[in-house]
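pasting for the record
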Amino acid sequence: MAPVLICSRDTSLPPWEILRKLINKNYSVLALTNWSNETFPQALELYDLLHWFEGILASGKEKMKNRILLSLILWLKGII
C-alpha cells in the first residue's frame, strides 16, 4: 500500500476516528511527534491512543530534527 500522510486540521472527523479507520483498513500507522523527552513517558501513560501506532518517533527522545525523523521512520518501515 502507498504511504499516506494524514494531518488532520480541517476535517469533519476527529483525528482518532481517522486513525481508527486507517487501522481497520490495515494501513500501517506510524507517529512522528515533537513531544519532549521529559513528558513523552507521561503521555504514553495518559493517552491510550498512542498505543495504537505501530511505531512512534519522538524528536525530543531521539534528539533529531523532524525532517530527519520523518526520513528515518519512512526508511525503518521500508517506505523509502
